[in-house]
Amino acid sequence: MRIIGLLLWAGAAMAAPAHSAVTATSDIGFATQSSVEIAAEPDAVYALLAMPGRWWSDSHTYSGDSANMVLDPRAGGCFCEALPNRSGKPGSVEHGRVIYAVPDKQLRLSAALGPLQSEGVAGTLDVTIKPSGKGVRVTMTYVVGGYVRAGAAALAPLVDQVLNEQLQGLKRAAEAH
């Protein structure tokens, strides 16, 4: 099941537009970086980060519905997802934990995202917001290190594409009127 989930995750990732880059790889880790210009104010973009249900892709959730996701943008805050269950015993998953929060400027999470969660890795997802042109430039950097059974370098391009898809979703949500 884990292999099937990884393949589905990877296949969906390949459909994402490529406005990002794998910036480093090794046998024990990788780094990616994506950035996008958003025609919105820094406070609006930062506030939107705390509402992943409005911009995160449904296909990259455990429940199949990003509306089940929340992000508490303060140190110790959870980037979590409710897992509804018809039996009345709902579950949940922690995607990450906020480790640094500067409103309107930066949000950093400790997060082993997606299929990396079941591997022996640590990941840091850093989102910065800086004024630029008629809005802001949002840069998302993800650094992962540890043991990945499939090989860290092999997963890096797939993870990069998935994160770029989320960043594009943030842009669409922020610029929707």
TrEMBL record:
Signal peptide coordinates: 1-20
UniProt keywords, alphabetically: Signal
Keyword Repeat: no
Regions annotated as coiled coil: none
Pfam family, one: Polyketide_cyc2
InterPro entries per record: Polyketide_cyclase/dehydratase, START-like_dom_sf
Transmembrane recorded as keyword: no
Protein name in UniProt: ATPase
Species this protein is from: Sphingobium xenophagum
